[in-house]
Amino acid sequence: MEPKIGLTPRQAEVLHYIKIFFNEYGYYPTVREICGGKVAGEKIIKPMSAHTNAHRLLNCLHNKGYIIKAVASPRGIAIVK
Length: 81
Prior knowledge:
By secondary structure, the protein is of the alpha+beta class. The protein contains 3 helices and 4 strands, in the order H-H-E-E-H-E-E. The strands form 2 sheets. Strands 1-2 form a two-stranded antiparallel ribbon.
């Protein structure tokens, strides 16, 4: 695996959201849940208007080594420890 590279502020927000979501529910969020930006009814990050934005950010996090992604799975992401 390649070394981790720094994150943009928006990528850091999404990574933080994924961590909070996992800590709250015990499983990782779907792309739709990431777009909503809420955990337990509380706004964590600014909502996204398009799913493609979430996919792009997740791909960046994956390419930088912060998450792993499973193909064709709705909750197919996990944070690399």
